[in-house]
Structure formats: structure tokens, C-alpha cells
Design a protein that fits this description.
By secondary structure, the chain is of the alpha+beta class. Among the domains are: 41-84 and 100-115, no CATH class; 166-340, Cupredoxins -  blue copper proteins (Immunoglobulin-like, Sandwich), CATH 2.60.40.420. The protein contains 8 helices and 10 strands. The chain has helices spanning 3-30, 40-68, 81-112, 128-157, 268-271, 275-290, 324-333, 337-340; strands at 166-173, 176-181, 215-217, 220-223, 228-234, 239-243, 248-252, 258-262, 300-304, 316-322. It has a 5-stranded mixed β-sheet with strand order 3-2-1-5-8, with no helix packed on it. A 5-stranded mixed β-sheet has the order 4-10-9-6-7, with helices on one face. Helix 3 packs antiparallel against helix 4 (128-157). It binds copper (II) ion. The site of copper (II) ion (CU) has 7 residues, from loops.
Length: 341
């Protein structure tokens, strides 16, 4: 539809609404305002509709839990993941308890106390006990979640390493990811937006001696059981590096470097044998087969979790977790910055 016809349509809709409102006003004047009165029948209808909508909503939540609950993530594949899951499970438990108590009451009361001729709302001014109760209960629940959450956060952000972590840079741009390994010296060469040119997409300063053995790759390989220290950068807008299977996420902010560390604990080959993952892969492949598409196999993914532009949904990179030997062999095949730039 052209822009002109859209504008004409909008204008016509507005004119129609104005006319409808005028007719309603005139008819109200004729009936001396009586058609604005709410009749007991109206109250009954609204009350019943409230009950219907409310309970329809609650039942739909239960149905969605049953139908789609199995699509949630498989067991965590990082050392810290189980703790994040415990935090999540406690938050969801509290939310669900409150939801299934409060929502039915809310909609039932909207029905029960609907307008009735002759009834009057009770004037209830103040109750200290009630005030104390509904302040203390949420405060306690929040205190537990926040104190526990902050503890988990600080152990994640300040990990005590028994061995030196492998340093990997994750570079975000609209709309793809690039990774840079620090090479034998485990030190990333200096990089800046001013050095970006041609194949040098992450802007490595080739004059910096630390950059010579850096390795730039389009697939993120990680050795299992080794702590990985990530350094995140962004070229254009704020992106967010999201590793759902490792329960990790960190914003990538232009002009600064952010960090996160985790230790992968399950290799790609192992997670493909997980029964939830297997069931998911089978289900997806049945749909793909019906459409005549290729068979798909599970891979860990790095996703962008900030709506960063039109192709944001497609900003992803495969992650391969493998044994140390497989990782070393893969790394050996990659070219260094000195060889490519
Ligand atoms: Cu993005």
C-alpha cells in the first residue's frame, strides 16, 4: 500500500470516529444522559467477562508451561552454571507461588464485588498489621535473592584461578561476531577502531609485538575444563554476548572493554548425547525433513542479546567445546595476525 493511501485511510478512520462520537452525544442529549448509566445487567456481564478472561489467562499459563516447558535450556555446560540455575529456579518458584495465589483472587474478587444496586464499598482506612505483612514479605524475598545474587556475581567476576585462564577477545559488530585468540604469549595485541581497514576487521595494531601471534577466527573453539577469560569489544552499537548454554552474558560497549570468565565443563560431543538435547534435535529434524531441509545437529551458540539493528536476530556464532588435544590441533591450523595482516 502506498504512503498516500495509508494517509487517506487514517484520515477516513479519524473522520468516522468523530462522526460516531457526535451521534452518541446527540442520542445522549435526546435520552437526557440515560444511555451513559450503568445498569445492573451491564455490571453482571462485565463481572462474568472478568472471571472468564482471568481464568482463561491462568489456564493458558498452565497450558504453555506443559506444552513449551521442555524447550527450556539443557543442563548448564559451565562450572558456575548450576548456581545461576539455582538462583533462577528460586526466583521462578517465588514468582509462580505469588502468581497462582494472587491472580485467581484478583479476578474472582473483580467478579464477586461487581457493582450491585444497594451495596456500598466498605471504607477501610488503615491496618498496621497488614502494612507490616505486605512490606516485610516482599522485602525478605528480595533480600534473599539480592544477597545471594550479589554473592554469586562477585565470585563470577573475581574468580580465584588455580591456572592461568586462556584469554579470548569477542568482537561485536552489526551483525556478526569475530573472535581473537591471544596466541602463545596469552596477551592480546593492542586494537583500536582507527586500525580497522580491509581484512583487519577488529582493528589490531600490527605494530604492537603482542599482536603478531594473535589468531582471528569466525568460530569460537574452547577447550573443556579450562578457564576462559573473555574480553568483549564492540565496533558500532551496544551488543550483548549471550552464551545461553553456559549461563553467561556480558554487554559489548563501543569504546571500552568488558570482561567475563567461565570454564566450559561439557564438550559439544557430550552435550549432543544429553537426552533433552537429543529429543530437541529429533523434533527439529522432523520439521526440517517435512520441509525438505538438511538435517541439523546441535551446536552451542553465541548470540547477541541486545536489539542492535535490523539483522540482530541473525547475529550468532557457533561454539565448539572440545578436548585440549582437539583444541590445540584446531588452533594450529589457524593463521596468525603476522601471517594474514
Ligand atoms: Cu548485536
Amino acid at each position: 500500500m502506498s504512503a498516500v493511501s495509508i494517509i487517506v485511510l487514517v484520515v477516513l478512520v479519524i473522520l468516522t470516529l468523530v462522526q460516531v462520537m457526535r451521534i452518541s452525544e446527540i442520542s445522549s442529549e435526546i435520552q437526557k444522559g440515560k444511555d451513559n448509566d450503568v445498569s445492573p445487567k451491564d455490571n453482571d456481564t462485565q463481572g462474568r467477562l472478568m472471571l472468564l478472561v482471568g481464568f482463561g489467562f491462568i489456564i493458558s499459563v498452565v497450558v504453555m508451561y506443559i506444552a513449551w516447558g521442555r524447550h527450556s535450556l539443557p543442563e548448564p555446560s559451565s562450572a558456575h552454571g548450576a548456581e545461576i540455575d539455582s538462583l533462577w529456579n528460586l526466583s521462578m518458584l517465588i514468582i509462580n507461588i505469588v502468581f497462582f495465589i494472587v491472580q485467581p483472587i484478583l479476578f474472582y474478587f473483580a467478579y464477586k464485588y461487581r457493582g450491585k444496586k444497594g451495596t456500598k464499598a466498605t471504607y477501610y482506612e488503615h491496618n498496621n498489621r497488614l502494612e507490616l505483612f505486605w512490606t516485610m514479605v516482599p522485602a525478605l524475598a528480595l533480600a534473599v535473592l539480592i544477597i545471594w545474587g550479589l554473592n554469586v556475581w562477585s565470585t563470577l567476576m573475581m574468580p580465584e584461578n588455580e591456572e592461568e585462564p586462556i584469554l579470548v577477545e569477542v568482537y561485536a559488530q552489526q551483525f556478526n561476531w569475530t573472535v581473537r585468540y591471544s596466541g602463545g604469549d596469552n596477551e592480546l595485541g593492542y586494537a583500536t577502531v582507527h586500525e580497522i581497514a580491509g581484512a583487519n576487521i577488529v582493528g589490531v595494531d600490527t605494530q604492537d609485538p603482542a599482536s603478531a601471534d594473535d589468531i582471528i577466527a569466525k568460530e569460537l573453539h574452547l577447550p573443556v575444563g579450562k578457564p576462559i577469560q573473555f574480553a568483549f569489544r564492540s565496533q558500532d552499537v551496544i551488543h550483548s554476548a549471550y552464551f545461553p548454554h553456559f549461563r553467561a552474558q556480558m554487554n559489548c560497549v563501543p569504546g571500552s572493554v568488558t570482561n567475563f570468565q567461565f570454564t566450559p565443563t561439557i564438550t559439544t560431543a557430550e552435550i549432543r548425547q544429553n537426552k533433552d538435547v537429543k529429543a530437541h534435535v529429533e523434533e527439529v529434524n522432523e520439521i526440517r525433513k517435512a520441509k525438505g531441509e538438511d538435517v541439523w545437529d546441535f551446536n552451542y551458540v553465541l548470540l547477541c542479546n541486545k536489539i542492535c539493528g535490523a539483522a540482530h536476530y541473525n547475529m550468532q556464532m557457533d561454539i565448539v567445546v572440545e578436548t585440549q588435544d582437539e583444541f590445540d590441533a584446531w588452533l594450529k591450523e589457524q593463521k596468525t595476525v603476522a601471517e594474514t595482516l
